[in-house]
């Protein structure tokens, strides 16, 4: 029984939720193939969003690694990173995930799947971000609260 809980804890990470969202997008496309707009610019916009998302994730991870702190959710940070992309977004990696999900929906031309994006954002907020922000306040106090007041959670 304990092994099952360990597996569930391992699966409950943002990349798994992103993969589930992408799989759901693909499933919607396969179940309802007539939903496509057929517009080429939709595919190009999807590619641009996905690439922007991957870039945001890479820049966010780079800053965390550069400051020798974790990018693993629910682990206590050892440094308070506010440089680079963290001047624009408190959560560039999660923002990148959301952009990749939106990009996949547009790339595959499955516009109804864009409704998955707000659900993904709400899930990430509730399961990860709120706890991580509480951990930052517990560890870094007023410094974290001041940063929260200056920099938006997503963008």
UniProtKB/TrEMBL annotation:
Principal localisation: membrane
Coiled coil location: none
The protein's name in its UniProt record: S-isoprenylcysteine methyltransferase
Domain of life: Bacteria
UniProt keywords, alphabetically: Membrane, Methyltransferase, Transferase, Transmembrane, Transmembrane helix
TM region positions: 7-28, 40-65
Membrane disposition: Multi-pass membrane protein
Keyword Transmembrane helix tagged: yes
Gene Ontology molecular function: methyltransferase activity
Location(s) in or outside the cell: Endomembrane system
This protein's record includes keyword Transmembrane helix: yes
Pfam families, A to Z: PEMT
Biological-process GO terms, alphabetical: methylation
């Amino acid at each position: 029984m304990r092994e099952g809980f360990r597996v569930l804890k391992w699966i409950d990470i943002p990349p798994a939720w992103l993969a589930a969202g992408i799989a759901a997008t693909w499933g919607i496309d396969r179940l309802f193939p007539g939903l496509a707009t057929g517009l080429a610019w939709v595919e190009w916009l999807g590619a641009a969003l996905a690439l922007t998302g991957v870039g945001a994730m890479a820049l966010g991870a780079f800053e965390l690694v550069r400051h020798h702190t974790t990018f693993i959710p629910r682990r206590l940070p050892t440094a308070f990173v506010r440089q680079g992309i963290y001047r624009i977004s408190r959560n560039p990696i999660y923002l990148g995930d959301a952009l990749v999900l939106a990009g996949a929906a547009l790339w595959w031309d499955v516009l109804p799947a864009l409704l998955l994006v707000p659900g993904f954002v709400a899930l990430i907020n509730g399961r990860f971000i709120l706890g991580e922000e509480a951990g930052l306040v517990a560890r870094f106090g007023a410094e974290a609260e001041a940063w929260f007041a200056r920099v938006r959670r997503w963008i």
